[in-house]
Amino acid sequence: MKDPLLRVTDLKVKFDHHVVLDDINFEVGKDETLAVIGPNGAGKTVLFRALLGLVPYEGKVEWAKGTKIGYVPQKLSIEKDLPLTTLEFFGLKEKSRKEIDDALASVGFEEDKPHKGHLSQHVLNRKIGVLSGGELQRVLIAFALLEHPDVLLFDEPTAGVDITAEETIYGLLRKLQERENLTIILISHELHVVYRYANNVICLNKEKICFGPPREVLDKESLEKLYGHEAGVYEHHHEHK
């Protein structure tokens, strides 16, 4: 790959002499979507932390010069009675109201309203703890977009949301990618999402099991290495989506 946005070479992460990731090598091109899959405890979130420079590691994580990275967490543990409005949450970024409105509009909130121009009434003045799972996820995406990133990292972007919200969020990510020329790296447990949205997939189980276009590398052998006796469940789940 010529001039990748991200190149990972011989990545190894260990905690207290316990190896969590070993011999990880892959590249991500500009405007691509990379899905990261694997069973629980496979090192997927640790990989993200290494990419963000949040954990010590051996090997190389090389981002193209000047790359701005945005991160959207799996979920925020927010008490419903937390006295923090969405507007106050966005205030942590010290951005103008127009920038905030534009970011929210870019994730579809403006389309939800019968009368445009009332974003504050619809979302910003509500307590962030009472937003639905889908609304909160879109708010978090908008929050990340305020910095105009080149790449967005998503840790299970639809965890805890219903099917309708899942379709909305993944459709939104595709639109954002096309409009903003974003590179997207996401952790997912949903193979139908990987097949539908990802250019490439990296299969992790503490080491790299496979890497490449989903329809080329997600064969029965790879899935069995990843999920063991549960591989048939994952294949069945994909076939009926």
From TrEMBL:
It comes from the Bacteria. Keywords: ATP-binding, Nucleotide-binding, Transport. The keyword Coiled coil does not apply. SUPFAM superfamilies: P-loop containing nucleoside triphosphate hydrolases (SSF52540). InterPro entries: AAA+_ATPase (IPR003593), ABC_transporter-like_ATP-bd (IPR003439), Metal_Ion_Import_ABC (IPR050153), P-loop_NTPase (IPR027417). Belongs to the ABC transporter superfamily. Residues 6-231 form the ABC transporter domain. One of its GO terms (molecular function) is ATP hydrolysis activity. Pfam families: ABC_tran. Coiled coil: none annotated. This is ABC transporter related protein.
